Amino acid sequence: MNSFLYNEFIFSSRYRIWRHLLYWTFHVAIWAAFWVVMGVPLSYGRQLLNMVMWVPAFILFGYPLVYGAIPHLLLKGRVWQFFLFVLLWGVVGLYIDAGYRSYVLIPAQEAMGLDNILPRGPLAFCYLCMTTSAASPMVIKFFKLWTIKQREWIRAQQEKTTAELQLLKAQVHPHFLFNTLNNIYSFSLDNSPKTPGLILKLSSLLSYMLYDCKTDEVRLEKEIDIMKNYIDLERERYGNKIEISWSVEGEIKDKLIAPLLLLPFLENAFKHGVSEQIEKPWLGVDISVQQGTLRCKIANSKNEYVPESDKGIGIDNVKKRLAFIYPGKHELKINDEGSFFVVSMMVVLVDELPAASFSPASMFISQPTQHETSVPAYR
């Protein structure tokens, strides 16, 4: 499908003459064979000559329909005008048929000394041959122009999707940075000696978001390292008041993932769960990659009397980006279990290989993601 949409010979104006020569050669050969099969007492060579001599009449009758009626009437939605023009032009075709035979074809055949020459005057089978000869290029032109419009529509949708993804990532960045800077600011007020180390970790986060996140995909290892830096920043903030478990298993090397898909859930766990916990809070992160599938589960304790929100900017953007980037290849479950909150995400990853050719059709094959309301408790 992709190779047809962008076939240069079919759509490039450089090959227009060659396309016409190829079409009429094929057309003449087929019609000559048709008349032989129908039992007309002429050789195939003579039939070829007759059909070649008919080509100017076919062009005179067919091209106004192909280059006038199709693009300027039918494809612009002027259907009734299109059919009216075809009917009127069909009447004109009667005179084109009779006039061409009487004043061009027959005199030329007589000058060449040919026998079995058609008589002058109206002939139904000649008119039928001319009209059907116009129908084929009309169908071809219609589907060619329709394909061009589809290609332009696909390109526009691709550009729209790219712009929306860039906007979503741009919304994630300041939201995440705002909370992280607030954490470091609290340390600087106390003149903590840990502040330089925290600033260094923040610089790695800034570098990640300013440079790495400009690409469509990043190494999974890098995303996980940034998550660990974020947890270290939060651990310094909470000290021994929080219990954190961290587990990474499986084949995380040489895997690619869209940037900033995991961080917003980690940020949400601290912001809406741990920070509002009266008793000792806890956080658990399990990440595993098996057979090219990433599974990430983030669970955190929370104040069961404070409803958890999954509609923040960061979480909402992740849902949209998952639908854009991994249609039919992801699963997201967000569950409030009262005293704790669980986010489970599954994404089918790709290996770190040279980028494959992009298929526009793939932007539109999507399946809705279901957000279930119950999952097993975090273990």
Automatic annotation (TrEMBL):
Gene Ontology MF, one? phosphorelay sensor kinase activity
| Domain of life of the source | Bacteria
| Keywords linked to the UniProt accession | Kinase, Membrane, Transferase, Transmembrane, Transmembrane helix
- Please indicate if the UniProt record lists Cell wall biogenesis/degradation as a keyword: no
- Transmembrane feature ranges: 21-42, 48-70, 82-102
In this chain the Signal transduction histidine kinase internal region domain maps to 163-242
**GO CC term, one of those recorded:** membrane
Q: Which PANTHER family match?
A: SENSOR HISTIDINE KINASE YPDA
What is the protein named?
Histidine kinase
Q: Which organism is it from?
A: Lacibacter sediminis
Species classification: Bacteria, Pseudomonadati, Bacteroidota, Chitinophagia, Chitinophagales
